[in-house]
Amino acid sequence: METVEKLTKVLRNHSMKITPQRLMIFQILENNTSHPSAEEIFKRVKDIYPTVSFTTIYKTLEVLCDLGELRELTIDDARKHYDPNTNTHHHIICTSCKKILDVFEDFSPHVKLPESFRENYMISNFQVSFYGICKECN
Ligand SMILES: [Zn+2]
Ligand SMILES: [Zn+2]
Question: What is the distance between the alpha carbons of residues 60 and 66, in angstroms, rounded to a whole number?
Fold first, then answer.
């Protein structure tokens, strides 16, 4: 995700009001590699702005995803997580503590889509998700 300044401009162009609560969402997400869930972001914003609603947080996250500034991860069945790094990369989740780490590795030579799909689709992106138990949990 880009800087807070750029996002402020993006939101303004989409006639979304810039509120201190929304700015705090960006600050939380900027360079964040912990893949926080909407609930985690909500808790942190609520600590500072007790009147903020979960809907505000969630809607802002949705808009940022629509604008391509944020990526939604569905690796965890229980909740969505958000990733400000929208470049192609992959993830590994611990199924016990739900910690999600980035996997920066080019899997393209190893991931083979059946011929019929390759003929009919221009593949623009793909994600590999690994599931396991981390060392601390094991
Ligand atoms: Zn774990
Ligand atoms: Zn990531």
Answer: 10
